[in-house]
Amino acid sequence: MTDLTARLRELQAGDLPVHGGRTLAYVYDSGLAEVDAVGRAAVAQFAGSNGLDPTAFPSLLTMENDLVGFACDLLDAPPGAVGTATSGGTESVLLAVQSARDARPEVTRPRMVAPDTAHAAFHKAAHYFGVELVLVPVGADFRADVAAMTAAVDEAPERTVLVVTSAPSYAHGVVDPVTELAAMAAARGIRCHVDACIGGWVLPYAARLGRAVPPWTFAVEGVTSISVDLHKYAYAPKGASLLLHRTAAQRRPQFFAAAGWPGYTMLNSTMQSTKSGGPLAGAWAVVQTLGDAGYERLTRDVFEAVDRIVAGLASEAGLAPLRLVVSPDSTLVAMATDATCDAFTVCDEMAARGWYVQPQMSYAGQPPTVHLSVSAATLPLVDEFLAALADAVAAAVAAGPVTVDPDVAAYIAALDPATLSDADFDGLLAASGLVGEAGGAGSGGLALPERMAEVNAMLDVASPAMREALLVAFLGRLSTPTRR
Question: Membrane-crossing residues (predicted)?
């Protein structure tokens, strides 16, 4: 056991740190060691419990109902609102789309209308469930364009089963005009989902603290469902989200039952059948530990960190090459660079200084950006963060903007992602620098560079379809069995 524990620590040494406030993507850190300990202990205690059958493990049902009740109170849900615990935001979104589709069995070619800033999980749901995804460009403020969304719905209102909004959108951290969009959807008898996976557990406390938060909860008439992640700003262990519906009738199509086989009658409330009780118990334990007072305190901390970062971008001379893309409504910050440097190099330079910030590709004429998911644990480190960011920007300016070899760009442009061969995939991987010489590209030997700016720049010149094809090929090369 000692040897295995040591090996696990050795493996984990190459991972991003999940605590300490320096990883501003993928993880959400309260900075409270005692809260983390409570969550981990609960995960371990219930890791073997199976959420497949709530009558066999009633403890899980009790915890799920407690969490849904807490969320209903937080999100202004009316009497009769219901909810389900899921494995994460993507599953919550998938179920929102699936239940909207299945609530309209008479619609043979269902569609949903979403701003083009809606999370990629909606693309996944469209692909899985055969729902046409109609993407509508957002306005100059990066929020959903109500008139354009309305026009898109009215192109085929009889086939539209869902209108999508975000609170906030992931890429830019702003809240869509939910009031107007929900009213539009309701007037046409269409469901309106609010993706609040990021904001659901932090924006209500922000409003209590007096911050200006656009309305988006169930207090808005016409909102029929909301997704909210517990493993984000509820600071719970990974693997916990909630999908809430305004009524039990609206949730019913989400459930799946199958009795037409010789085994047990399958009955599922989520995409999963067997599921560990660990993440649910971890979330329940953390929410019980923090409560309203704890979340209000953590919300105050995270928004103070956001405000200080935003103020630093505006006032510190060393950060002049950076600009705020849009003033954030929530805890997500997007920054673009001027022509003296590039976002991808800034991200590399931050990594070299012990900070992980997330690169975002260009889209619809908007440049690449540096993305921050700020946590409460970052607050004590804001001055250090801003100093590191200024150093990173200076280094990026000194290096100059990263460029893509014209021959590589031409090679990418000449390929059709729909008809790529294995040889084409290998050529793309080699051109990207993601495949090493050892063993040759065809054997799958990977050489992961420590600095990703050139790779990201190459991905950025590719079309979205080509980028997807390249990354699918890369994932296929990464996912190779370790044989004894």
Answer: none
